[in-house]
Each structure stands twice: as C-alpha cells, then as structure tokens.
Amino acid sequence: MVGLKFDDSLLDTEPRASRVPPGVYKLAIRSVKSDIKSWPDDVRLVWTFTIRDGVVPHGTLKMTTTLKKDAQFSFGRLLEATGFDSATRLHGKEVKDEATFEPRVRGVMEKELVGKEIAALVADSRPDDRNRVYSNVQEIYTVTEYEEHAAAVNTAPRPTTFTASDDGIEDLGELAKEIEDGW
Q1: Looking at residue 155, what is its pLDDT?
Q2: To 5 degrees, how large is the angle CA 139–CA 53–CA 126?
Q3: pTM summary value
Q4: Of all helices (H) and strands (E), which one includes residue 28?
Q5: Could you say which DSSP state residue 54 is in?
Q6: CB-count burial class (<10 Å; 0-12, 13-18, 19+) for 8
Q7: Residue 27 to residue 141: CA distance in whole angstroms
Q8: Beta strand 117-124 with 60-66: parallel, antiparallel or unpaired?
C-alpha cells in the first residue's frame, strides 16, 4: 500500500488567473517571475496582476512578456505604462547569463514595479486545443488613461435592435410579438 505524499504542488500558492468579461481594467502588478526555456533565446517574464477596477472589480490576471530579439514590444509597453525609463535603463544593455538576469533584470522589475498600477484592455483568447478560453491582456495604457478607455469600452450602449435580420423583424418588441403569435 502506498501512502499519501505531499508534493511540490502544495507549495504553488500563486493565484490562478481569473476569467473576466472583456473590457478595460485597472490593474496592479502583484508579482513578476522568470520563465527561462532556453538562455538567451527563449526568456520570458510572467506578470501577475490584481484587478483594482473594471467590468469586474476583483480577480487576478496574468500576462507573459517575451524577451526574444525583435519581439520585446509588450515588455516595453508595460514598462512605459508604469513610468519605468526603459530607454535609459535597459535599451542596448546586454545580460550575459541567467545568473545575472535574476538579480539585474527580474529582481529590479520586482523591486521597482510590484504595486504599480496600469490600465489594460482585456479580451478573450482563441480557444486552445482543449477548447479553453482565457482572459488576455491585449493593450496596455498608463493608469491615468484608465477612465478615458474604460468610458469608451466598458459603458458602450447595448444594441436594442437587430442589425441583420432574415425575417424582417427589426426590434425586440416585434420579435416578442412574433413569438407570442406562434411565429
């Protein structure tokens, strides 16, 4: 008989990402972790955010930024939204090895950016191979732009009429009457 063994999953207390309705959210950076698949060709930072305001004013979102050559734009946009001066502090610099990366890049990101707020447009992902859909950060804005983007996206009026109708029914009242009449 084999006994119960507590494994490493017990120590995984990082919050899971929430599935939230699409919209603009105010987010606070909760943590940043390294995800190094292959040095230096496949290095990523995994960001965890706490939702502070938005369509659903609570929960957790995650975002991965790649540090691959010529693909660092999401990382740059995130840094810019926090006010981090990446042009002076990172641009053109080289990190020689993994051991240096942790304290000099990821460690600095954690020390200086955890707690900072940003705004983000969140949308549903395409279904994965198991038909699961996730909430993805699509665009990043400064926190001062939150109200402007949220007003444009989160409070858009809901349509009350059909835009394309095969049966000539143009509004919901007409549809309800058609259904009552036995359609």
Answers
A1: 63
A2: 40
A3: 0.77
A4: strand 23-38
A5: S
A6: exposed
A7: 10
A8: unpaired
* CA–CA gap between residue 121 and residue 135 (Å, rounded): 10
Q: Are strands 23-38 and 42-53 parallel, antiparallel or unpaired?
A: antiparallel
pLDDT at residue 166, rounded to an integer: 44
CB 27 within 8 A of CB 51: yes
Residue 161: DSSP 8-state:
B
Residues in the chain where the model's pLDDT stays below 50: 156-169, 183
d(CA 173, CA 161): 9
d(CA 141, CA 54): 14
Residue 24's identity, in one-letter code, is: V
Sheet holding 117-124, edge to edge: 60-66, 42-53, 23-38, 117-124, 135-142
77 SS3 class: helix
Two structure tokens written together for 11: 């120590």
